[in-house]
Amino acid sequence: MPKNKGKGGKNRKRGKNEADDEKRELIFKEDGQEYAQVLRMLGNGRCEAMCIDGTKRLCHIRGKMHKKVWIAAGDIILVGLRDYQDDKADVILKYMP
To answer: Where is the composition biased (Basic residues) (predicted)?
Structure first.
């Protein structure tokens, strides 16, 4: 049988419990950004969100947050609007309660 040459398994990929439970500075929206509430998760790193301006957008979770920050339906998020696609946006930040 060959030796395992990896550096660990599933638990190593999960990492240590580095949850952002401590107080962090509140980040407000800038131009080109909007607040939104997640309506439903679609899979493949995407979700459907209702923005404050009343538009329903298809949002893509950025790679930095993917599998690190868990987003569920009902969460408040900050999305970056696309200037070339009005019905799509990118999730920049998830607000904690």
So the answer is: 1-15
Q: Which residues are within 8 A (CB) of 30 and not within 5 positions of it... i.e. 6 or more apart?
A: none
What pTM was estimated for this model as a whole?
Answer: 0.73
pLDDT of amino acid 37 = 95
pLDDT at residue 65 in the model: 84
Which helix (H) or strand (E) element contains residue 91? strand 88-94
Instruction: For residue 67, count CB atoms less than 10 angstroms from its CB and return exposed for 0-12, middle for 13-18, buried for 19 or more.
Output: exposed
Let me know: does 36 contact 48? Beta carbons within 8 Å. Answer: no
